[in-house]
Amino acid sequence: MKLSARNQLKGKVVEIQEGVVSAKVVIEICEGNRISSTISMDALRDLGIKVGDEATAVIKATSVMVMVP
């Protein structure tokens, strides 16, 4: 996958807090350093994200997106 955003932080999904409409995904990028993103429940299902998965936090301006292989 190619993406124009250059701020990409790879890590492991350590927590998912599911809500009715959105989910908070927490990625540990190195021991003790975590970053979180709020994504839609549809995106969570479409990406198939689970705790323990490798994922990449993609930062563009003030938004944080999540990318998986």
Automatic annotation (TrEMBL):
Q: Which GO terms describe its biological process?
A: molybdate ion transport
Coiled coil as a keyword of this entry, yes or no, is no
Which Pfam families would you find in this protein's record?
TOBE
> Does the keyword field hold Phosphoprotein?
no
Q: Which residues form a coiled coil?
A: none
Q: What UniProt keywords apply to this chain's record, in alphabetical order?
A: Molybdenum
Domain Mop residues, every copy: 2-68
InterPro entries in the cross-refs: Mo/tungstate-bd_C_term_dom, Mop_domain, Transp-assoc_OB_typ1
Q: How is this protein named in the record?
A: Molybdenum-pterin-binging protein Mop
